[in-house]
Amino acid sequence: MAISFRPEPDFTHGTAPTTGILYCNLGTPDEPTAPAVRRYLAEFLSDPRVVEIPRALWLPLLHGVILPLRSGKSAAKYASIWTSDGSPLRVWTEKQAKLLQGKLGENGHRVMVRHAMRYGSPSIASQLDALKAEGATRILVLPAYPQYSGTTTASIVDAVTQWSSRIRHLPEIRFVNRYHNDEGYIAALARKLELFWRANGRPEQLVMSFHGVPERALHLGDPYHCECYKTARLVAGKLGLAQQDFTVSFQSRFGKAKWLEPYTDATLRTLGKKGARIDVICPGFTSDCLETLEEIAMEGRHTFLQAGGKEFRYIPCLNDDQGGVAALAGVAERHLAGWPTRETPDKEALERSRTLALARGASH
């Protein structure tokens, strides 16, 4: 069967090539209701990058058991963190994209920045269409995930590739795979903690909680586990923390398979039993979302205090932090290298200026 390519947007000859950046986050339901959450989870959990179980076994279980049972419970959790502006993840992601465009503009780059969600809206395909319609002939895909994983970063590549398979005139496309050890990103996280501690004092223990993935992924070659630990070590080093001053853990388990350990909930319970005073930060999340605001700041706090913990403080994600935006801009600039994104001087104006300068020199 012949492939049907999508119609190309109108093109004006003589138009200068332009560059776009697509800033991609995971996604969120459109509203905190069971039907909306079910649609979102169906798309998310149907991705073979996320759940590596044969489709013939997994999809009937997903649609027949998991979604009917989980959608309502998840909707209640989303409702607990929903704001008047909507989903926190969508609000922060959209704001980060706007701030990123502003920062790159300040640095002299003429680029268009749009945000997209891997699952939900606005979709990656719709935003690529929009960039192409606006004249983008070069597109940099920048994930909101500092650490690479096949479950997240590679899935974004899959979505872009799927879009590309239906496009006749493809733009040049580049991908950012990781920035887990980026100097600016590490400095922004350390600065966030330093400012908080300067105002509130240091805890007995800092917990750095990252999103989990099945342990099987580690043994099959996924670098995510190592990159999380690298981020944690660099942040701790920047702050001058000793090994015993911080703990790395992994949250958000799903299903009965073994996931990366130590688990965050078990870690919080253990620290609570010791009567500790702790701070928790989630360095793998660039913006606050369900996993940070509900799972950590609410459920995690309850687990810790119920176990006997003395003080639990959650430190928000970078969100619209200036250092975080500057770090994203730095990552983007390195990957934009070689693409003419800076304003090009008018050649005729430069020639007139040179001629005038020569004439003035000759008159003296």
From TrEMBL:
The gene is hemH. Catalyzes the ferrous insertion into protoporphyrin IX. It is an enzyme of class 4 (lyase). It is found in: Cytoplasm. One of its GO terms (biological process) is heme biosynthetic process. Its EC number is 4.98.1.1. This is Ferrochelatase. GO terms for molecular function: ferrochelatase activity; metal ion binding. CDD domains: Ferrochelatase_C (cd00419), Ferrochelatase_N (cd03411). Fe(2+) binds at H211, E291. One of its GO terms (cellular component) is cytoplasm. The lineage of its organism: Bacteria, Pseudomonadati, Pseudomonadota, Betaproteobacteria, Burkholderiales. Keywords: Cytoplasm, Heme biosynthesis, Iron, Lyase, Metal-binding, Porphyrin biosynthesis. Pathway: Porphyrin-containing compound metabolism; protoheme biosynthesis; protoheme from protoporphyrin-IX: step 1/1. Belongs to the ferrochelatase family. It catalyses: Fe-coproporphyrin III + 2 H(+) = coproporphyrin III + Fe(2+); heme b + 2 H(+) = protoporphyrin IX + Fe(2+).
